Amino acid sequence: MEKWIEELFSEELLEKAAGKFGCEASGAKKLGDFENYVYEVHKGDTPYILRLTHSSHRSGIDVEAELRWVNYLHENGVNVSLANRSREGRLVEKLEAGDTCFYVCLFDKAPGKPVRVNDPLFDEALFKEWGRVTGKMHRLTKEYKAGEYQRERWDEDDILSYSKYLTQEDAVIIEKAEKNKKELQKLDETPEIFGIIHSDIHAGNFFYHDGEMHVFDFDDSMQFFFMSDLAIPLYYSVWWKHGKGNLRERSEFGETFLKAFLNGYLEENSVDEKMIARLPSFLSLRDFTLYSVFHKKWDLTNLSEAEESLLSGLKERLLNDEPIVSLDYQAILTQAKG
Predict the structure, then answer these.
(1) Which residues are in the Aminoglycoside phosphotransferase domain (predicted)?
(2) Distance between CA 271 and CA 262 in Å, rounded?
Protein backbone atom coordinates (compact mmCIF):
# COMPACT_ATOMS: atom_id res chain seq x y z
CA MET A 1 0.00 0.00 0.00
CA GLU A 2 1.24 3.50 -0.80
CA LYS A 3 2.66 5.32 2.25
CA TRP A 4 0.17 8.21 2.10
CA ILE A 5 -2.75 5.77 2.24
CA GLU A 6 -1.18 3.92 5.18
CA GLU A 7 -1.18 7.20 7.07
CA LEU A 8 -4.96 7.47 6.65
CA PHE A 9 -5.62 3.98 8.02
CA SER A 10 -6.10 3.36 11.75
CA GLU A 11 -7.41 0.82 14.26
CA GLU A 12 -10.37 3.14 14.85
CA LEU A 13 -11.22 3.03 11.14
CA LEU A 14 -11.00 -0.77 11.19
CA GLU A 15 -13.36 -0.95 14.18
CA LYS A 16 -15.89 1.31 12.44
CA ALA A 17 -15.66 -0.77 9.27
CA ALA A 18 -16.28 -4.04 11.11
CA GLY A 19 -19.09 -2.49 13.11
CA LYS A 20 -20.94 -1.50 9.94
CA PHE A 21 -21.41 -5.21 9.27
CA GLY A 22 -21.98 -6.31 12.87
CA CYS A 23 -18.51 -7.83 13.23
CA GLU A 24 -15.88 -7.54 15.93
CA ALA A 25 -12.51 -6.03 15.03
CA SER A 26 -10.82 -7.23 18.21
CA GLY A 27 -8.51 -10.03 17.23
CA ALA A 28 -8.83 -9.13 13.54
CA LYS A 29 -6.19 -10.92 11.46
CA LYS A 30 -4.60 -8.97 8.61
CA LEU A 31 -4.51 -11.03 5.40
CA GLY A 32 -3.26 -8.46 2.92
CA ASP A 33 -2.53 -4.79 2.23
CA PHE A 34 -1.13 -4.66 -1.32
CA GLU A 35 -4.07 -2.97 -3.06
CA ASN A 36 -6.73 -3.29 -0.33
CA TYR A 37 -6.73 -3.79 3.42
CA VAL A 38 -8.08 -7.30 3.99
CA TYR A 39 -8.85 -8.77 7.42
CA GLU A 40 -10.41 -11.88 8.86
CA VAL A 41 -13.01 -10.79 11.40
CA HIS A 42 -15.75 -12.61 13.30
CA LYS A 43 -19.45 -12.37 13.92
CA GLY A 44 -19.87 -14.66 16.90
CA ASP A 45 -17.91 -17.78 16.04
CA THR A 46 -18.26 -17.33 12.27
CA PRO A 47 -15.28 -15.94 10.34
CA TYR A 48 -15.74 -13.37 7.56
CA ILE A 49 -13.43 -11.43 5.27
CA LEU A 50 -13.56 -7.64 5.68
CA ARG A 51 -12.11 -5.55 2.86
CA LEU A 52 -11.38 -1.81 2.85
CA THR A 53 -10.69 -0.26 -0.55
CA HIS A 54 -9.26 3.25 -0.79
CA SER A 55 -11.03 5.67 -3.14
CA SER A 56 -7.78 6.20 -5.09
CA HIS A 57 -7.97 2.54 -6.12
CA ARG A 58 -11.68 2.05 -6.91
CA SER A 59 -14.82 4.16 -7.02
CA GLY A 60 -17.92 3.24 -5.05
CA ILE A 61 -19.67 2.24 -8.28
CA ASP A 62 -16.73 0.00 -9.19
CA VAL A 63 -16.94 -1.85 -5.87
CA GLU A 64 -20.72 -2.18 -6.04
CA ALA A 65 -20.47 -3.50 -9.61
CA GLU A 66 -17.94 -6.13 -8.51
CA LEU A 67 -20.09 -7.32 -5.60
CA ARG A 68 -23.30 -7.52 -7.64
CA TRP A 69 -21.54 -9.70 -10.23
CA VAL A 70 -20.01 -11.92 -7.53
CA ASN A 71 -23.41 -12.48 -5.96
CA TYR A 72 -24.93 -13.23 -9.38
CA LEU A 73 -22.32 -15.95 -9.89
CA HIS A 74 -22.99 -17.28 -6.38
CA GLU A 75 -26.74 -17.40 -7.02
CA ASN A 76 -26.09 -19.42 -10.18
CA GLY A 77 -24.01 -22.10 -8.55
CA VAL A 78 -20.42 -20.89 -8.82
CA ASN A 79 -18.30 -21.40 -5.70
CA VAL A 80 -17.49 -17.77 -4.93
CA SER A 81 -17.50 -15.90 -1.63
CA LEU A 82 -20.86 -14.20 -1.13
CA ALA A 83 -20.82 -10.45 -0.45
CA ASN A 84 -22.92 -9.69 2.65
CA ARG A 85 -25.08 -6.68 3.34
CA SER A 86 -24.35 -4.26 6.15
CA ARG A 87 -26.63 -3.46 9.10
CA GLU A 88 -28.11 -0.75 6.87
CA GLY A 89 -28.74 -3.21 4.05
CA ARG A 90 -25.93 -2.03 1.77
CA LEU A 91 -23.30 -4.10 -0.02
CA VAL A 92 -20.81 -1.22 0.24
CA GLU A 93 -20.29 1.16 3.15
CA LYS A 94 -18.33 4.39 2.85
CA LEU A 95 -15.98 5.67 5.58
CA GLU A 96 -14.43 9.13 5.32
CA ALA A 97 -10.66 9.42 5.75
CA GLY A 98 -9.41 12.99 5.45
CA ASP A 99 -10.42 14.32 2.04
CA THR A 100 -10.72 10.74 0.76
CA CYS A 101 -12.61 7.63 1.83
CA PHE A 102 -12.53 3.86 2.11
CA TYR A 103 -15.21 1.58 0.67
CA VAL A 104 -15.95 -1.34 2.96
CA CYS A 105 -17.47 -4.74 2.17
CA LEU A 106 -17.77 -8.12 3.88
CA PHE A 107 -17.44 -11.56 2.29
CA ASP A 108 -18.11 -15.08 3.48
CA LYS A 109 -14.86 -16.88 4.17
CA ALA A 110 -14.26 -19.61 1.58
CA PRO A 111 -14.00 -23.20 2.87
CA GLY A 112 -10.88 -25.25 2.29
CA LYS A 113 -7.26 -24.24 2.04
CA PRO A 114 -4.83 -22.81 -0.50
CA VAL A 115 -2.87 -25.10 -2.82
CA ARG A 116 0.76 -24.16 -3.29
CA VAL A 117 2.67 -25.05 -6.44
CA ASN A 118 4.77 -27.67 -4.61
CA ASP A 119 1.72 -29.28 -2.99
CA PRO A 120 0.83 -32.78 -4.31
CA LEU A 121 -2.69 -31.42 -4.94
CA PHE A 122 -1.26 -29.01 -7.53
CA ASP A 123 -1.92 -31.53 -10.29
CA GLU A 124 -3.96 -32.11 -13.45
CA ALA A 125 -7.15 -32.80 -11.50
CA LEU A 126 -6.89 -29.33 -9.97
CA PHE A 127 -6.02 -27.76 -13.33
CA LYS A 128 -9.13 -29.32 -14.88
CA GLU A 129 -11.36 -28.05 -12.06
CA TRP A 130 -9.71 -24.64 -12.43
CA GLY A 131 -10.70 -24.58 -16.09
CA ARG A 132 -14.22 -25.87 -15.43
CA VAL A 133 -14.96 -23.15 -12.87
CA THR A 134 -13.53 -20.46 -15.16
CA GLY A 135 -15.60 -21.73 -18.08
CA LYS A 136 -18.77 -21.72 -15.95
CA MET A 137 -18.14 -18.13 -14.89
CA HIS A 138 -17.71 -17.06 -18.52
CA ARG A 139 -20.81 -18.93 -19.68
CA LEU A 140 -22.96 -17.32 -16.99
CA THR A 141 -21.48 -13.88 -17.62
CA LYS A 142 -22.80 -13.92 -21.19
CA GLU A 143 -26.31 -13.63 -19.69
CA TYR A 144 -25.45 -11.10 -16.98
CA LYS A 145 -27.10 -7.66 -17.10
CA ALA A 146 -24.96 -5.14 -15.24
CA GLY A 147 -27.27 -2.14 -15.76
CA GLU A 148 -25.76 1.01 -14.30
CA TYR A 149 -23.20 -0.96 -12.29
CA GLN A 150 -20.50 -1.47 -14.90
CA ARG A 151 -16.96 -2.53 -14.10
CA GLU A 152 -14.27 -0.56 -15.91
CA ARG A 153 -12.88 -1.72 -19.21
CA TRP A 154 -9.41 -3.27 -19.16
CA ASP A 155 -7.84 -0.40 -21.09
CA GLU A 156 -9.11 2.14 -18.55
CA ASP A 157 -6.83 0.63 -15.91
CA ASP A 158 -4.41 3.25 -14.62
CA ILE A 159 -1.58 0.73 -14.51
CA LEU A 160 -1.60 0.55 -18.33
CA SER A 161 -0.55 4.19 -18.47
CA TYR A 162 2.98 2.88 -18.73
CA SER A 163 4.74 6.22 -19.10
CA LYS A 164 3.24 7.30 -15.78
CA TYR A 165 5.17 4.66 -13.83
CA LEU A 166 8.14 3.83 -16.05
CA THR A 167 10.97 6.23 -16.92
CA GLN A 168 12.76 6.88 -20.18
CA GLU A 169 15.27 4.29 -19.05
CA ASP A 170 12.55 1.82 -20.01
CA ALA A 171 11.60 3.54 -23.27
CA VAL A 172 11.98 0.31 -25.25
CA ILE A 173 9.68 -1.57 -22.89
CA ILE A 174 7.12 1.27 -22.95
CA GLU A 175 7.07 1.13 -26.74
CA LYS A 176 6.54 -2.65 -26.74
CA ALA A 177 3.83 -2.38 -24.09
CA GLU A 178 1.91 0.27 -26.01
CA LYS A 179 2.11 -1.84 -29.17
CA ASN A 180 0.73 -4.85 -27.29
CA LYS A 181 -2.14 -2.76 -25.90
CA LYS A 182 -3.06 -1.40 -29.33
CA GLU A 183 -3.08 -4.90 -30.83
CA LEU A 184 -5.60 -6.05 -28.23
CA GLN A 185 -7.71 -2.93 -28.66
CA LYS A 186 -8.16 -3.79 -32.36
CA LEU A 187 -9.83 -7.14 -31.63
CA ASP A 188 -13.60 -7.37 -32.16
CA GLU A 189 -15.57 -7.38 -28.91
CA THR A 190 -18.58 -9.70 -29.02
CA PRO A 191 -20.58 -11.22 -26.11
CA GLU A 192 -19.21 -14.67 -27.00
CA ILE A 193 -15.63 -13.67 -26.24
CA PHE A 194 -15.81 -10.42 -24.23
CA GLY A 195 -17.46 -9.64 -20.89
CA ILE A 196 -16.75 -9.29 -17.17
CA ILE A 197 -13.88 -11.50 -16.06
CA HIS A 198 -12.18 -12.20 -12.72
CA SER A 199 -8.81 -11.24 -14.23
CA ASP A 200 -6.69 -12.70 -11.44
CA ILE A 201 -7.58 -16.40 -10.96
CA HIS A 202 -4.23 -17.64 -9.73
CA ALA A 203 -3.51 -20.12 -6.95
CA GLY A 204 -3.51 -17.38 -4.33
CA ASN A 205 -7.13 -16.45 -5.06
CA PHE A 206 -8.96 -19.68 -4.41
CA PHE A 207 -9.22 -22.42 -1.79
CA TYR A 208 -9.58 -26.12 -2.60
CA HIS A 209 -12.16 -28.13 -0.67
CA ASP A 210 -13.30 -31.71 -1.34
CA GLY A 211 -12.14 -31.52 -4.96
CA GLU A 212 -13.85 -28.19 -5.63
CA MET A 213 -12.46 -24.67 -6.08
CA HIS A 214 -13.85 -21.73 -4.14
CA VAL A 215 -12.81 -18.47 -5.82
CA PHE A 216 -12.40 -15.09 -4.12
CA ASP A 217 -10.71 -11.69 -4.56
CA PHE A 218 -12.59 -10.22 -7.52
CA ASP A 219 -11.01 -6.79 -6.98
CA ASP A 220 -9.33 -6.89 -10.40
CA SER A 221 -12.51 -7.91 -12.25
CA MET A 222 -13.03 -5.93 -15.43
CA GLN A 223 -14.60 -5.91 -18.87
CA PHE A 224 -12.15 -7.80 -21.05
CA PHE A 225 -11.75 -10.77 -23.34
CA PHE A 226 -12.45 -14.12 -21.68
CA MET A 227 -9.11 -15.33 -23.06
CA SER A 228 -7.31 -13.25 -20.44
CA ASP A 229 -8.81 -15.47 -17.73
CA LEU A 230 -7.11 -18.42 -19.45
CA ALA A 231 -3.81 -16.60 -19.81
CA ILE A 232 -3.46 -15.54 -16.17
CA PRO A 233 -3.76 -19.01 -14.54
CA LEU A 234 -1.29 -20.34 -17.10
CA TYR A 235 1.08 -17.42 -16.54
CA TYR A 236 1.23 -17.56 -12.75
CA SER A 237 1.28 -21.35 -12.51
CA VAL A 238 4.27 -21.51 -14.84
CA TRP A 239 5.99 -18.55 -13.18
CA TRP A 240 5.57 -19.84 -9.63
CA LYS A 241 6.39 -23.46 -10.51
CA HIS A 242 9.28 -22.91 -12.94
CA GLY A 243 10.07 -19.20 -12.77
CA LYS A 244 13.78 -19.91 -12.41
CA GLY A 245 13.75 -22.48 -15.19
CA ASN A 246 14.50 -21.96 -18.85
CA LEU A 247 11.93 -21.52 -21.61
CA ARG A 248 11.86 -25.25 -22.40
CA GLU A 249 11.10 -26.21 -18.77
CA ARG A 250 8.44 -23.53 -18.48
CA SER A 251 6.82 -24.58 -21.75
CA GLU A 252 6.73 -28.29 -20.88
CA PHE A 253 4.85 -27.58 -17.68
CA GLY A 254 2.71 -24.95 -19.44
CA GLU A 255 1.52 -27.51 -21.98
CA THR A 256 0.51 -29.95 -19.22
CA PHE A 257 -1.32 -27.20 -17.34
CA LEU A 258 -3.15 -25.73 -20.32
CA LYS A 259 -4.34 -29.06 -21.73
CA ALA A 260 -5.89 -30.06 -18.39
CA PHE A 261 -7.31 -26.55 -17.88
CA LEU A 262 -8.95 -26.59 -21.32
CA ASN A 263 -10.38 -30.07 -20.68
CA GLY A 264 -12.31 -28.58 -17.78
CA TYR A 265 -13.11 -25.27 -19.48
CA LEU A 266 -14.70 -26.99 -22.48
CA GLU A 267 -17.17 -28.79 -20.20
CA GLU A 268 -18.76 -25.41 -19.49
CA ASN A 269 -17.92 -23.07 -22.36
CA SER A 270 -16.51 -23.01 -25.89
CA VAL A 271 -13.12 -21.61 -26.92
CA ASP A 272 -12.80 -19.50 -30.04
CA GLU A 273 -9.94 -20.88 -32.19
CA LYS A 274 -8.95 -17.43 -33.42
CA MET A 275 -8.74 -16.19 -29.84
CA ILE A 276 -6.62 -19.12 -28.60
CA ALA A 277 -4.07 -18.10 -31.22
CA ARG A 278 -4.00 -14.68 -29.52
CA LEU A 279 -3.07 -16.16 -26.14
CA PRO A 280 0.59 -15.00 -26.43
CA SER A 281 -0.61 -11.38 -26.57
CA PHE A 282 -2.54 -11.82 -23.33
CA LEU A 283 0.47 -13.43 -21.66
CA SER A 284 2.61 -10.50 -22.80
CA LEU A 285 0.05 -8.09 -21.37
CA ARG A 286 0.50 -9.72 -17.98
CA ASP A 287 4.28 -9.25 -18.27
CA PHE A 288 3.90 -5.55 -19.04
CA THR A 289 1.23 -5.08 -16.37
CA LEU A 290 3.36 -6.65 -13.65
CA TYR A 291 6.38 -4.59 -14.66
CA SER A 292 4.28 -1.44 -14.34
CA VAL A 293 2.70 -2.56 -11.03
CA PHE A 294 6.09 -3.25 -9.47
CA HIS A 295 7.27 0.23 -10.41
CA LYS A 296 4.14 1.76 -8.91
CA LYS A 297 4.10 -0.22 -5.67
CA TRP A 298 7.73 -0.85 -4.78
CA ASP A 299 10.38 1.52 -3.44
CA LEU A 300 12.90 1.02 -6.24
CA THR A 301 15.67 2.55 -4.11
CA ASN A 302 15.21 -0.09 -1.41
CA LEU A 303 14.35 -3.37 -3.10
CA SER A 304 14.73 -6.66 -1.31
CA GLU A 305 16.86 -9.35 -2.92
CA ALA A 306 13.71 -11.21 -4.03
CA GLU A 307 12.14 -8.06 -5.49
CA GLU A 308 15.34 -7.19 -7.34
CA SER A 309 15.50 -10.70 -8.79
CA LEU A 310 11.87 -10.60 -9.95
CA LEU A 311 12.18 -7.18 -11.52
CA SER A 312 15.48 -7.80 -13.28
CA GLY A 313 14.34 -11.19 -14.58
CA LEU A 314 11.12 -9.73 -15.95
CA LYS A 315 12.97 -6.80 -17.53
CA GLU A 316 15.43 -9.14 -19.24
CA ARG A 317 12.63 -11.22 -20.73
CA LEU A 318 10.81 -8.14 -21.97
CA LEU A 319 13.90 -6.68 -23.61
CA ASN A 320 14.69 -10.02 -25.26
CA ASP A 321 11.08 -10.72 -26.32
CA GLU A 322 11.22 -14.02 -24.44
CA PRO A 323 7.68 -15.25 -23.61
CA ILE A 324 6.76 -16.95 -20.35
CA VAL A 325 5.99 -20.05 -22.49
CA SER A 326 6.18 -21.01 -26.16
CA LEU A 327 3.37 -23.41 -27.10
CA ASP A 328 1.32 -24.65 -30.04
CA TYR A 329 -1.94 -23.36 -28.64
CA GLN A 330 -4.21 -24.57 -31.40
CA ALA A 331 -2.76 -28.08 -31.21
CA ILE A 332 -3.32 -28.13 -27.43
CA LEU A 333 -6.93 -26.98 -27.95
CA THR A 334 -7.47 -29.76 -30.52
CA GLN A 335 -6.10 -32.33 -28.07
CA ALA A 336 -8.32 -30.99 -25.28
CA LYS A 337 -11.39 -31.25 -27.54
CA GLY A 338 -10.47 -34.80 -28.54
Answers:
(1) 32-266
(2) 9
- Can you tell me the distance from the alpha carbon of 161 to that of 60, in angstroms, rounded to the nearest whole number? 22
Determine the Cα–Cα distance for residues 108 and 102; give it in Å rounded to an integer: 20
Q: DSSP readout, 284-330?
A: HHHHHHHHHHHHHHS-TTS--HHHHHHHHHHHHHHHTT--S----HH
pLDDT in tens, 287-304: 999 999 999 989 899 999
Which tens digits make up the pLDDT trace of 10-32?
A: 999 999 999 999 999 999 999 99
* Topology of domain 116-337, CATH: Aminoglycoside 3'-phosphotransferase; Chain: A, domain 2 (3.90.1200)
Domain ranges of the chain: 3-108, 116-337
Q: What's phi and psi for 33, nearest 5 deg?
A: -155, 30
What is the per-residue pLDDT for 3?
86
* Pairing, β 100-108 against β 194-197: unpaired
**Span 3-108: which CATH code?**
3.30.200.20
End-to-end CA distance of the chain: 46
Query: What are the CB-based long-range contacts (under 8 Å, 24+) for 117-124?
Result: 117/203, 117/237, 117/240, 117/241, 121/208, 122/203, 122/241, 124/256, 124/260
Question: How many other C-beta atoms can be found within 10 angstroms of the C-beta atom of residue 33?
Answer: 14
CA of residue 187 relative to chain centroid, distance: 22
